Amino acid sequence: MPTPPSPRRPAPGQPRATLTREAVLDAAASLVRQHGPQGLTMRKLAAELGTAVTSIYWHVGNRESLLDALVERTVRELDEIRARGATPRARVLSLARTLRRELLARPHLVAMVHERGLTERMFLSAQQALLHEVHAAGLRGARAAEAVRAVQFTVIGHVLVERNRERAPVQRPGEPDLWDTRTAEDDRALARALARAPDAERVFTTSLRALVNGLLPPGTDGSAGSPDRSSGGTSDGPSDGP
Amino acid sequence: MPTPPSPRRPAPGQPRATLTREAVLDAAASLVRQHGPQGLTMRKLAAELGTAVTSIYWHVGNRESLLDALVERTVRELDEIRARGATPRARVLSLARTLRRELLARPHLVAMVHERGLTERMFLSAQQALLHEVHAAGLRGARAAEAVRAVQFTVIGHVLVERNRERAPVQRPGEPDLWDTRTAEDDRALARALARAPDAERVFTTSLRALVNGLLPPGTDGSAGSPDRSSGGTSDGPSDGP
DNA sequence: ACCTGAACACCGTTCAAGT
DNA sequence: ACCTGAACACCGTTCAAGT
């Protein structure tokens, strides 16, 4: 949310307004977003800010605590996610989609959060919100916990794979034949479903909707619209969607 | 680019014979497993091997392609995962558990695979195997693809969170009260289910079993509710691998 | 074919010294 | 309170020179 409103233009050697900790963090975050943590060197950062390398140390201590501050900021940003929508179902979907978008917007920072063991902390607010909706939909106890986790892991998994495809080597056209021959085993629809590289957001929304339909009990939501699936006797696991 | 030298066999017990590419990779992998990629410096590696820093360059080119080779090796190792068990259900579970174990055994290397966009490639073999079982259980087309992805994402999600807990800051005792007050909302069982830090493997197996029960159509498997496994030991995975 | 030390450019960090 | 350059230890990499 806090965007760079800094009036500073990076003109190396040019005197400017006083250097502030916020300005250092902004410039550092920008470098990390573009080139990852190893693209952030104290000397490049100083050049970007037009100061001496050593000035930075006064404001942020050292490189490690600078990265820590960036991580802290990221956690705080992800913590501000709120649900939107009328029904629990819609609100869960909105949470998942927002989560996905925010994670994809800062992959390097998210990776740094993970390295520092703060992934769960980062998800805490979203987890609480998911929990609230799942509760509102009627789930309790272990069932509710499972549902929250399922959504969370699905988001993580999708983001991971998407992020991976972005930086994947060429492979995109040659990919299908990994699946064709006997791999997909006489099931062409499956082969396509697995090998295709379509609109990632659509795929995400679709499979998440299916998951939510399987997880949440029917009837809490007018928009359910799908014929109820019979699950055998005791089994109550998530079914599919449309 | 330097060509790979002939596969000469170094004396098994002896730490110091002639320097070989394999020996370099082994030592490098060991350093990465212990301290992560940034713990691998060419100079430390040379010290470890008892050679001059520059000798390494003859065998592996440079640091970047050394890391590439490590990644390649990791992908190859994860590619060797095989299913075990009698029923599709059991085989899916065994695949997931083996996958989890192998991923947890080399978190840094897995992260490097991901950075290079090879995550999907690394999962390819497991994905094919999962697909085979899901097919055997009777799923087809998009349903089968969804099931494979669900298992895959669940494994990834669990490994991510587990890994995260390992390196998380203290927080373990203070964690529950994040959930207590109005967070878990009058549902104490839920609060405990979400905040607890119990045997991670058990949690994994339990939620995966639930997922599989929900995904696979009933009737293909007689052992639906069998209370067979209660031992804590890791009993199913093939301990193949280098 | 394999190994070596010297040398270079870059890095994070400290510190005495400035204002 | 803030900023600075010099200096140090460490890094990856190149290269001419050894065997």
UniProtKB/TrEMBL annotation, chains A, B:
This is TetR/AcrR family transcriptional regulator. Gene3D superfamilies: Tetracycline Repressor, domain 2. Residues 41-60 bind DNA. It comes from Streptomyces daliensis. The lineage of its organism: Bacteria, Bacillati, Actinomycetota, Actinomycetes, Kitasatosporales. GO terms for biological process: negative regulation of DNA-templated transcription; response to antibiotic. PANTHER family: HTH-TYPE TRANSCRIPTIONAL REGULATOR RUTR, TRANSCRIPTIONAL REGULATORY PROTEIN. Residues 213-242 are annotated as: Disordered. Residues 18-78 form the HTH tetR-type domain. GO terms for molecular function: DNA-binding transcription factor activity; transcription cis-regulatory region binding. Coiled coil: none annotated. Keywords: DNA-binding, Repressor, Transcription, Transcription regulation. Residues 225-242 have a biased composition (Low complexity).
